[in-house]
Design goal:
This protein is of the alpha/beta class and about 375 residues long. It is about 45% helix and about 15% strand.
Length: about 375
């Protein structure tokens, strides 16, 4: 018998075992014919983007509150008889043919999607989801609009769950006037300017983003800002990658702006604290998380009826809503917030009350009780 192949094989098993003690433990239980209590493996791209932070908060809170082992990974390799939660549709489709999808209980989050020919990439992803919808036990979405779409596309109701995004209220919270002025001065925002925020990626690609990602509505944003600039002294605060299209548009309109790209997500509140208004002009969204973040920081928000915005925003109570592509409505809503002091203040106060039920501690608990616990003990 040749020993070299055997030694090499043993080394490979040793590497797998040392890097994945959970798999060894579960494999041992299987050999002993003992009941396996699965752990949670949350798969996200690990690109320091919103979906990664969603996974971070879910796994951290579930582990803390329920003393259940959770793991945040970028790939589902070497996982056996566990619960795998793909944090976004693209990640699921990337690993759709993985062996892990046959040996584990699979969950998929679908934040947004559209089968319109206007958005071929989204349509293709949804067609693939429908093709492979037999793989996940549950498809989870964050807003009622997407929930209804999934039903319309033929996904069985018992396979769909709707749980909103959460917010870390220990980080995203209001500031005091003196601190607000200090933050504005540091960014060069004039005291007499109306500062309007837009913190998202709305250009194609990950470089300058000179070609607009129209699904995010950067063209609508510029049209609304141009009209507001005739009535107010406007300053635009931007964050996020690939903002070249909007930056070029603001330069052509001669509207002052500042683009700040923060590597640390937890630094975002200091940008919100500079704002007098946050504006969402998107045509399609899975969130946006800026709805939650604005309310939590005490910033009035005007948004199109996309994603979870109509689920959270009650028109003229904690924010203002407009129909998609309606420049006039968006402009009028912004004017109301900026000119009506009473409305401005009530929107802030109601937003701070309403956002409390979206704390990640509460949302993660819902994930555990509504999604994970039934699978954990099934």
């Amino acid at each position: 018998m040749k020993l070299k192949p055997v030694i090499q094989k043993c080394k490979r098993y040793s590497q797998i075992i040392s890097s994945s003690p959970t798999i060894l433990f579960q494999g041992g239980k299987k050999l002993l014919n003992l009941r396996i209590i699965p752990e949670l493996f949350y798969i996200s791209p690990q690109s320091n983007w919103v979906t990664d932070w969603v996974g971070h908060y879910i796994t951290t809170e579930v582990k803390h509150q329920f003393n259940w082992p959770t793991h945040l990974l970028s790939a589902p390799h070497l996982i056996f008889e566990q619960i795998i939660h793909y944090g976004e549709l693209g990640t699921f489709l990337h690993f759709v043919h993985s062996r892990a999808n046959k040996n584990n209980k699979i969950l998929v989050t679908v934040f947004h999607g559209n089968r319109s020919t206007q958005y071929p990439d989204l349509s293709q992803n949804i067609d693939s989801l429908i093709q492979y919808c037999h793989i996940p036990i549950k498809i989870i979405t964050a807003c009622q609009g997407m929930y209804k779409r999934l039903l319309d596309w033929g996904i069985p109701e018992q396979k769909i769950a709707c749980i909103p995004l959460g917010i870390d209220l220990s980080i995203f919270k209001p500031t005091i006037p003196a601190r607000k002025m200090l933050d504005r001065h540091r960014l060069g925002i004039p005291d007499n300017a109306i500062c309007i925020g837009s913190f998202q990626k709305d250009g194609i690609g990950w470089e300058k983003g000179l070609e607009p990602k129209l699904i995010k509505g950067p063209d609508i944003f510029l049209k609304v800002i141009a009209r507001l600039n005739h009535e107010h002294n406007i300053f635009i605060l931007l964050s996020g990658p690939a903002r070249g299209y909007v930056i070029r548009g603001l330069q052509e309109l001669n509207i002052p702006y500042r683009h700040v790209f923060l590597e640390d997500f937890k630094s975002m509140p200091r940008l919100y604290h500079c704002l007098d208004l946050y504006l969402v002009t998107s045509r399609e969204e899975g969130g946006p998380s800026s709805v939650l973040e604005s309310l939590a920081c005490g910033v009035p928000i005007v948004s199109t009826r996309v994603g979870l915005a109509p689920d959270i925003i009650q028109h003229q109570r904690n924010g203002l809503l407009a129909e998609i592509d309606q420049v006039d409505q968006l402009y009028e809503n912004c004017q109301q917030i900026l000119s009506n002091t009473s409305l401005h203040q009530s929107v802030i106060e109601n937003g701070l009350k309403d956002i409390e039920s979206y704390d990640w501690k509460i949302i993660a608990s819902r994930y555990y009780h509504e999604i994970y616990q039934p699978l954990r003990y099934a």
